[in-house]
Design a protein that fits this description.
single chain; 211 residues; alpha/beta; Rossmann fold; Arc Repressor Mutant, subunit A; 6-stranded parallel β-sheet; two-stranded antiparallel ribbon; 8 strands; globular
Length: 211
């Protein structure tokens, strides 16, 4: 593992007010060479590529511009495998927490985390440990108690794409899956919920606060 002299903090969140306040919070830690925030995906990725020689601690909002940001995780790691990803979210749904966990971020904190939580998160990651804030740990314990969710993490991801109005073909293209795989997942979800249309399926997902 490369020993980076400079560590930068990068925030990607589409709410400017939160980004600015969180940027101020990170500056108070005195743990980073620089702290930058972005609301635009293209500018955010361009910044990471331009700073590939540095190790970036990326604070990534889970829900950006009305869609999940998880698809960015592979891009971030492809740019530099030593980048550290800390998900920041206010989600309270255990199914969505499980979906995020499936992408194995180094850190996972609530948007309500204080300075002490953030410092603890960064220090844990510096020691090659993962970190989950207390609010997230509670939701994770609920998952273990409740057992298996009605939808798998992949199915929840597909539901979000369907909810955004994507066709089967477009969803398959975005997720690099075959059209037949998407159709099979959709049939399986409809069978689980005893629904006869995508409209009914999405209605149940909304009722359960999954999308």
């Amino acid at each position: 593992m490369q020993n980076y002299r400079f560590k930068n903090a990068v925030i990607f969140d589409d709410h400017e007010l939160f980004s600015q306040s969180f940027e101020t919070l990170l500056e108070k830690t005195n743990l980073f060479t620089s702290v930058r925030s972005f609301q635009d995906e293209a500018a955010f990725l361009k910044h990471l590529i331009s700073n590939i020689q540095y190790q970036n601690y990326i604070f990534l909002d889970f829900f950006i511009n009305n869609k999940y940001s998880l698809s960015l995780i592979n891009d971030i790691r492809r740019i530099n495998k030593e980048n550290k990803i800390i998900m920041i979210s206010s989600v309270t749904n255990s199914s969505l927490v499980e979906l995020i966990e499936n992408h194995k971020p180094e850190g996972f904190i609530s948007k309500f985390s204080n300075l002490q939580n953030v410092i603890e998160c960064i220090n844990n990651i510096n020691e090659n440990k993962t970190y989950r804030s207390e609010e997230i740990e509670i939701l994770l314990s609920q998952i273990k108690t409740k057992g298996k969710q009605i939808f798998s993490t992949r199915e929840i991801e597909l539901l979000q794409y369907f909810n955004d109005g994507n066709t089967i073909e477009k969803t398959a293209e975005k997720l690099n899956l075959s059209k037949h795989t998407i159709i099979a997942h959709r049939k399986n979800m409809m069978a689980k919920t005893k629904t006869n249309s995508i409209i009914e399926l999405l209605a149940i997902a909304r009722e359960k606060n999954i999308i």
